[in-house]
Amino acid sequence: MSPPTDRACIGHIADERARLIGRYGADDLHVGTADEHLRALSRARFASLAYRRPRKRPFIQPRGGFPSVAKQRALTVAFDEAGADFLPLTIDSHTRHNDYRTASDLLAAGLAEDRDLLNGYPLASHGVELTRRVFEGIERPISLRHGTPDARLLAEIALAAGITEIEGGGLSYTLPYSRGFPLERALVHWQYVDRLCAVTGPADAPVHRESFGPLTATLVPPVITAVVQLCELLLAAEQGVRSFAVSFGQTGSFEQDVALADVLRHMSAKLLARFGFPDVHVSLVYHQWMGAFPTEASLAWQLIAVSAAVSRLAGADKVVIKTPEEALGIPSIDGNAAAVRAVRYVLDMFPDATTVDNDAIDEERDLIGSEVEHVLEHIFALPTTALLSSVHQAVLTGAIDVPFAPHEQNAGRLITGRGCDRRIRILDAAAVPISAEDLRRERRLHGQRSPEQGQLWEQLLRDIRLLV
Asked: Topology of 6-349 in CATH?
């Protein structure tokens, strides 16, 4: 049995940092660069401090990344002027997979041809000094959004550039984003990132960590979302992280969204108290619909507005927003800024709205909570020597099983579908250790006869394209 403990902290990482930064070989990055810069940075730039301030609505954070410094700067200024509370730096796919050479080559070619050949910002190619210029004069927290199993170098550069929120985790940025990267190695690399965030910067303004809750954003049942979030929270707490956000993506059911938000808040507090991490401040982040998006602009705007309202009613601390151009390609600067203004308008319409409750939410809250308890207790009881090893073992045995994840170590045997009430239901739990009673409840609430073999894919596509 290996419950979470601060004795799992990896301690000093100075030697490993020196080797990593030495291999990078940039003149503007040294072991002390991030710490020195963060200590001198305006406190308005720290995500952890923002989350602790009273507010009447969720913070608004868009996504967005362009290859050139000039275009990323223009996007940042547009977001700032539109009223975004947190600003993003979204990384390109080559950098995400540590292919820095290809990212640099495509950046150079794109600049020469005056066109974008990357789908995000190549942070390692631009480095610390240029990236600082992107955010010069901006008094809002900057969030690193990427999808990287090995984010050690990205985190080093990001912190040195003044980015105070690092998204991701060993599970949430490996299973949905990678096929062959060894999961255990990714979990160890994210220990480095967590420890780096814990020891870097001023003591009164800790670097904030955020997990990625949507995962594959395709029929992921709430229990899997919650277990992944809570495991990454505890792994970060072990390394000394003091500010963390659990998150989840819009499920397609209002009742399930509110219930899942409640379970995440309750279980986060319960587990941190149980295992002796009372100083960790936890926030809740809601991602607007991450599935297939409507191509028709009017429908896309309707979906964005509804998602904004749900984020407020679910009591989210931050909402990560989408644009009306999601189905068409990489959103433009104007489309991004317009989405920020629209979401802010919706949220400002009911700044004092109270949370809602009804029998359906109560039922869902009870079911999700029971399932999460069963799965986590199974993980904590595994005969390993550390929580990291238990989490790794849980994936290999299918106790954590993310639907439609491409990773070769993900079991892929959990079967889900949407019930008549639009909620995501578990039809076959496979090796996910929920109770027999909870599985019966899932099937009863699904409320549909199992489809014939020829109808299975048609039903699956309908479920996936629910909000299109």
From this structure: TIM Barrel (3.20.20)
Using DSSP's 3-state secondary structure scheme, residue 222 falls into helix
Q: In whole angstroms, give the CA distance from residue 27 to residue 387.
A: 37
Check if 96 is active-site: yes
Among 96, 209, 418, 423, the one annotated catalytic? 96
**pLDDT interval class at 455 (50, 70, 90):** low
Which of 45, 57, 152, 167 is catalytic? The answer is 167
List Cα–Cα distances, 118 to 78, 87, 95, 105, 269, in angstroms: 20, 20, 10, 10, 40
| Dist CA 88 CA 65 (whole Å) | 8
- In this structure, what DSSP letter does residue 91 have? B
Mean pLDDT, rounded, for 310-329: 95
Helix residue ranges, H only, 314-358: 333-349
- Residue 167 known to be catalytic: yes
**0.90 cut: is pTM over it?**
yes
Query: CB 254: neighbour CB atoms within 10 A?
Result: 21
- Per the DSSP assignment, residues forming a β-bridge with 250 are none
Question: What's the pLDDT tens digit per position in 43-95?
Answer: 999 999 999 999 889 999 999 999 999 999 999 999 999 999 999 999 999 99
* Residues near 7 by beta carbon (within 8 Å), at least 6 away in sequence: none
Distance CA 219, CA 234 (A): 25
